[in-house]
Description:
Elements: E1 14-18, H1 32-48, E2 56-59, E3 67-69, E4 78-79, E5 84-87, E6 93-98, E7 102-108, E8 113-119, H2 121-126, H3 128-138, E9 147-150, E10 160-161, H4 163-168, E11 176-179, E12 182-185, H5 187-197, E13 205-207, H6 222-225, E14 233-239
Parallel strand pairs: 2-4, 2-6, 3-5, 9-13
Antiparallel strand pairs: 1-14, 5-8, 6-14, 7-8, 7-9, 10-12, 11-12
Amino acid sequence: MLYNVKLFRKYQNIQAFFSRKSDSSMKLTSNSLLKKRISANREDYFVKNNIDPKNVVSAKIVHEKKLAAVHEKDSRKIISGVDGLITQNKNIFLSITSADCLPIFLFEPEKEIIGMIHAGWRNLEKGIASNAVEKIIKLGGRPENILVGIGPAICQKHYEVGLEVAEKFKKYPEAIKKEGGKTYLDIKKIAQLQLLELGIRKGNIEISSECTFELPKKYFSARRDKPKIVEAMIAVIGMKNT
């Protein structure tokens, strides 16, 4: 299903997608019993949305800060050790999975650069946003041109963290809430503040109000469901030839 990033609307060659629970789990796995089923779920989803599966590049999520710049030769690959992908190539679709963490869609229209990032608190603390912007700059892009869509993710109300995690983000007090002896983190706000620090304009950052935890019929949520095997949505962005 197309993901509605209003900032992308006037660029008809940009397509962004975010799956739902009804599309089944898209989480990459090494479990031999699940691998075939997950692969079928992903292929069905791509085909249903007019994406050729062989044009999809996937990041194998590791909750770190690394991203990979990908090209046509990387089509259908699963890139290990990264949580984000960047490309200037047309007809390549970049994908990550998430089940409470942030799916972050990036587009630099002047140089036609797209990016797809998975970001939880670990990635944000380690600097994945900065790495993404640096890669876009290396490809000739400018931060002030970058358009960002932050997709559905867990909201602060349901994202309880330990004090040691909150301490890592003490420079963003507006993203930390203490209530009833508990501490809650707003990762959507942290991502926005970090992107602003990197030179992205506030008006170029669009944040979904949807909370994955609060919509059990629509989205998987690792925190809510506490599954033995994590199930997740897939976020995809691609740039078609005009």
